[in-house]
């Protein structure tokens, strides 16, 4: 049952099976595609988006009008909107990814063995990547571009609120692929808003090799619980900054202020500040004044309440990702108690220590088990672009197979390769 965009899907299960089969077939062609062809496709997609931006914004207006009728709040409508600058951003993102080094086919760790054979590893695509996301239609272009550059076919299921926008972007992607001789089925945007499509995607291991959910905690928990396909994800961003008693107070002030107030609604924003008892009296009143100027609500332990004006922190606060101008503060005895607190309450996303003590910095790096661990730097740096990956498809707090920001390399796997000259094992 070949499906065209905007046609209603009568049999979701059959449609998703067909979508998966087409993605699997396309993945084999894409895995063998040379870098130049993939880069040409990315630039062709960018050109098509530029040429059809008026039509794209017209489709986006349909989503915005439907969203207003459904009563979506201003923040959701803002994430949904595609204006000229956001389309420029999509186009620039495609061109930047085209300019990144291609990880596919890289050979490394080649060594001669005593038998005379050479053994090494080669970087290869994962195969078919399923991505389930909400609201922002620009994710359609970003995710497609990252998967395409890393040699993966992809099945994209965006939120129903962005259906028309996503289908318009998909049309540009397909035209760009076809123009450069790559299969249009290498990128498929699910053409139904039926939620059963998500259930099908996450239970098709014969067609989809990995699922990447991008959205709220409820979505990610559902996918993690129900998926029969491996999932790359993070549930929460409960990030910590610990100000050590050997910290430079000016550095501590800048890092702790930036980690919380540079942006509130991101997964790498600090949610809990830990401060050594020895310096709390010096740094906390200064920080409290700065947070007050930014209208940040402070919730503190009893020792914190004795030093600054703040609300009492509850037990639940230490395990809450606020994504808002709210900060929990705890005064700790020192680095041991700070590491214990992080071990008990962290979501293993990003943690930072501010200290001039080399030994404690090394201890923090070695003993804190999170996907990003920092010294004298804001947690807001936990980002694929800031790490030099060029772009990211998400951040993983899992330990297999990718951890931290997932860029092009994170969308690949490796296989062993062996080179011989008629060698046989004796």
Features:
14 helices, 7-stranded parallel β-sheet, disordered N terminus, 426 residues, alpha/beta, 19% strand, 16 strands, 42% helix
Compact summary:
The protein is an alpha/beta fold and 426 residues long.
What is the succession of H and E elements? HHHHHEEEHEHEHEHEHEHEHEEHEHEEEE
Strand content: 15-25%
Q: Which structural class do the helices and strands define?
A: alpha/beta
Strand order of the largest sheet: 10-9-11-8-7-12-13
Number of H/I helices: 14
Task: Summarize the structure in words.
It contains 14 helices and 16 strands. It is globular and about 65 Å long. Helices cover 42% and strands 19% of the residues. The protein has helices at residues 12-31, 35-51, 53-70, 74-80, 84-98, 138-149, 163-179, 196-201, 217-226, 249-261, 277-293, 302-307, 335-345, 358-367, and strands at residues 107-112, 118-125, 128-133, 153-157, 187-189, 210-214, 239-243, 270-276, 297-300, 311-312, 326-332, 350-354, 372-375, 395-396, 404-405, 412-419. Residues 1-5 have low confidence and may be disordered. It is an alpha/beta fold. α5 packs parallel to α6 (138-149). The strands form four sheets. Strands 10-9-11-8-7-12-13 form a seven-stranded parallel sheet, sandwiched between helices.
């Amino acid at each position: 049952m070949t499906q065209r965009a905007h046609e209603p899907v009568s049999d979701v299960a059959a449609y998703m099976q067909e979508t998966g089969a087409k993605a699997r077939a396309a993945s084999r062609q894409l895995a063998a595609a040379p870098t130049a062809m993939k880069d040409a496709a990315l630039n062709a997609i960018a050109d098509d988006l530029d040429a059809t931006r008026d039509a794209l914004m017209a489709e986006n207006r349909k989503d915005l009008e439907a969203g207003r009728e459904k009563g979506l709040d201003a923040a959701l409508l803002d994430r949904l909107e595609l204006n000229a600058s956001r389309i420029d951003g999509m186009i620039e993102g495609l061109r930047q990814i085209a300019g990144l080094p291609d990880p596919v086919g890289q050979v490394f760790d080649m060594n001669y063995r005593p038998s005379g054979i050479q053994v090494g590893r080669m970087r290869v695509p994962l195969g078919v990547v399923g991505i389930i996301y909400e609201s922002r239609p620009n994710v359609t272009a970003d995710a497609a571009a990252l998967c395409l550059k890393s040699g993966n076919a992809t099945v994209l299921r965006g939120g129903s609120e962005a259906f028309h926008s996503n289908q318009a972007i998909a049309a540009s992607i397909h035209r760009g692929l076809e123009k450069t001789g790559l299969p249009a089925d290498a990128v498929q945007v699910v053409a139904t808003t039926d939620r059963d499509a998500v259930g099908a995607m996450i239970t098709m291991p014969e067609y989809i090799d990995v699922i990447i959910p991008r959205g709220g905690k409820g979505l990610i928990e559902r996918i993690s619980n129900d998926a029969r396909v491996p999932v790359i994800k993070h549930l929460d961003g409960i990030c910590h900054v610990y100000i050590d008693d050997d910290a430079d107070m000016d550095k501590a002030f800048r890092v702790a202020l930036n980690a919380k107030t540079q942006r509130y609604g991101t997964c790498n924003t600090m949610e809990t500040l830990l401060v050594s008892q020895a310096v709390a009296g010096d740094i906390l009143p200064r920080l409290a004044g700065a947070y007050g100027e930014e209208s940040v609500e402070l919730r503190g332990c009893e020792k914190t309440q004795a030093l600054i004006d703040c609300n009492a922190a509850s037990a639940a606060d230490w395990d809450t990702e606020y994504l808002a101008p709210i900060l929990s503060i705890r005064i700790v005895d020192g680095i041991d108690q700070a590491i214990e607190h992080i071990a008990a309450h962290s979501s293993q996303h990003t943690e930072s220590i501010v200290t001039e003590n080399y030994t404690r910095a090394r201890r923090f790096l070695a003993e804190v088990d999170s996907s990003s661990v920092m010294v004298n730097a804001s947690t807001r740096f936990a980002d694929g672009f800031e790490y030099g990956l060029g772009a990211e498809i998400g951040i993983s707090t899992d330990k297999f197979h990718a951890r931290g920001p997932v860029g092009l390399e994170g969308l690949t796997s490796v296989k062993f390769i062996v080179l011989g000259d008629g060698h046989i094992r004796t």
